């Protein structure tokens, strides 16, 4: 056996055992490595989560005198998926075409997979259509590509066509279809497919059960979601953290802390209670069910907390009017070296708003970028505007809205109009109405709000002007008559504050 062949076998042995360091060392000491050595390195690095290094070895292969073979390209395309690099995938496809490997079954399947996962369905389907031979992997890859892009109807057409051509779907194909319908919210079709799958002697996998449960929860079908959990347990499938976090919102929907505690108990028995994502979901669940003490017990028992855990507990305190607790927890979070994010500050500002803690809330808002490196977003502006409107500081609110460096949303304008109604500031409401079109709020809701203002005063010429603006900007929806601004101006005219 020559040295080159021996080195290739050594590289393969190390790579297959996951000893990438030793495999690389032998590769580097090999003069003119052959295609088997290259394939082992490209494959091992892609498989173990180093797609960039995998592509690096492929580039090295291209620079060498060694020629890639049909086994090289599926591995390289897998690395392209790992990097989500569509351009590199297209470059590799060009090389495949030039070398005549495009009709190789394994290579074509890898191309479909790469294009599908990188979001280019057109190219994936083109490769699929040009194949002279297709196997279950080809069909499933194409079906998955459509399902992954939420085009489940196209997936179903292919699924049925595959069966008509005599190719029996495997468990992965079934799972792709079921999960796709569940994610779309069509739980009834998903459940029918589960029954058909079972008749063929196959059972859903964990991912599919989780998708089904999540689909039922998102469709507010709480009873069925809970029943699915029991079916899952009866089938011998062990729930994971995704199952628990997906199911816990049910308890908020049905306002049942008792059900939440049962799921909490299941998480404890499965030893998932210390998982930070499960803990955050439990805190949020107890918060929605009004059990602040239980939320705190979960929070305090988690050994490793991430920012989501802190955010959930701060949000819980804020939602239930315990503003001082929320502020103290925020300070403790910083003391423990956990950096707040946008959600943290939104939760804190919301707590200050609902609790009427004005100056502290304003101090946090105005120091966001300086102290925390977070630029205020529309959610933060909405909180501080709500905060000021609640206590009647509407002149200040008006100035903030006019100076906002980001898009002013309809909800912000709506909050301002509501504040003007409560504190009888018709003058500011009229000023804001005049500013709306100048502030780039040319969206249907804003224009409807403005139309309602004029309609409440019987200014039909101005209503017609707004309708014309809507037509000019491509919005044809007729203005409604339900925004609080209309009520504001109607009541304001009788109070006489700023009346014409």
From TrEMBL:
Which UniProt keywords are given for this protein, alphabetically ordered? Answer: Repeat
**PPR repeat residue intervals:** 135-169, 170-204, 205-239, 306-340
- GO BP field: RNA modification
Q: What is this protein called?
A: PROP1-like PPR domain-containing protein
Domain (PROP1-like PPR): residue spans on this chain:
150-251
Q: Does the keyword Repeat apply?
A: yes
Q: Name one GO molecular function term.
A: RNA binding
What Pfam families does this protein map onto?
E_motif, PPR, PPR_2, PPR_long
């Amino acid at each position: 056996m020559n040295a080159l062949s021996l080195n290739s076998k050594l590289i393969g042995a190390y790579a297959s055992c996951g000893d990438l360091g030793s495999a690389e060392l032998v590769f580097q000491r090999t003069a003119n490595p052959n295609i088997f050595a290259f394939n082992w390195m490209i494959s091992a690095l892609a498989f173990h989560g180093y797609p960039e290094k995998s592509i690096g070895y492929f580039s090295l292969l291209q620079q060498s005198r060694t020629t890639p073979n049909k086994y090289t390209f599926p591995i390289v395309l897998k690395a392209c998926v790992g990097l989500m690099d569509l351009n590199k995938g297209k470059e590799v496809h060009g090389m495949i075409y030039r070398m005549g490997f495009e009709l190789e079954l394994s290579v074509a399947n890898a191309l479909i997979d790469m294009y599908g996962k990188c979001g280019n369905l057109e190219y994936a389907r083109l490769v699929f259509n040009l194949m002279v031979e297709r196997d279950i992997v080809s069909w499933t890859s194409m079906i998955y590509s459509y399902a992954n892009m939420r085009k489940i109807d196209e997936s179903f057409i292919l699924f049925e066509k595959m069966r008509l051509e005599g190719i029996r779907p495997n468990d992965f194909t079934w799972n792709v279809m079921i999960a796709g319908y569940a994610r779309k919210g069509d739980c009834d079709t998903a459940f029918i497919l589960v029954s058909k799958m079972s008749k063929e002697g196959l059972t859903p996998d964990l991912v599919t059960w989780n998708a089904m449960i999540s689909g039922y929860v998102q469709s507010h079908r709480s009873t069925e979601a809970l029943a699915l959990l029991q079916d899952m347990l009866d089938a011998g499938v062990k729930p994971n953290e995704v199952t628990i976090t997906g199911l816990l919102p049910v308890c908020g929907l049905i306002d049942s802390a008792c059900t939440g505690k049962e799921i909490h108990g299941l998480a404890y028995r499965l030893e998932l209670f210390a998982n930070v994502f499960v803990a955050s979901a439990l805190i949020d669940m107890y918060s929605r069910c009004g059990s602040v003490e239980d939320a705190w017990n979960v929070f305090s028992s988690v050994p490793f907390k991430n920012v989501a855990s802190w955010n959930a507990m701060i949000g819980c305190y804020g939602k239930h009017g315990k503003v001082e607790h929320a502020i103290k927890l925020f300070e403790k979070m910083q003391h423990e070296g956990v950096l707040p994010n946008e959600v943290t500050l939104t939760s804190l500002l919301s707590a200050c708003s609902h609790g009427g803690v004005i100056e502290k809330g304003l101090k946090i808002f105005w120091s966001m970028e300086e102290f925390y490196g977070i630029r205020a977003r529309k959610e933060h502006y909405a909180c501080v505007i709500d905060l000021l409107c609640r206590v009647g500081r509407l002149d200040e609110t008006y100035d903030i809205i006019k100076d906002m460096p980001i898009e002013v949303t309809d909800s912000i304008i709506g909050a301002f109009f509501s504040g003007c109604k409560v504190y009888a500031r018709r003058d500011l409401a009229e000023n804001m109405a005049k500013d709306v079109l100048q502030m780039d709020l040319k969206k249907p809701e804003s224009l409807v709000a403005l139309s309602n203002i004029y309609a409440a005063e019987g200014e039909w010429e101005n209503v017609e002007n707004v309708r014309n603006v809507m037509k000019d900007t491509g919005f044809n929806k007729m203005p409604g008559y339900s925004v609080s601004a209309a009520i504001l101006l109607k009541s304001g005219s009788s109070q006489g504050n700023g009346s014409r």
